[in-house]
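Revision sheet: structure tokens.
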Amino acid sequence: MKTDENLPKDLLTIVQAGLRTREIVMQKSLDRAKVEGLDQHERVVQEGSDFHNKLQEFAMFRLAFYEC
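Predicted:
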């Protein structure tokens, strides 16, 4: 996702930090989904399913991450 460089500097910093966090969570969710075998879940492998061949979307739907 691209940010608008015309934003005020302090707001731009916050938005960029949020985007970095989102990318980290997306990667960790994909890694965790594979560890937990969610890549073989029926909602991912079954044709016609709402998450068919969309492991990343299913991982974001199914898993939760918390900032400690």
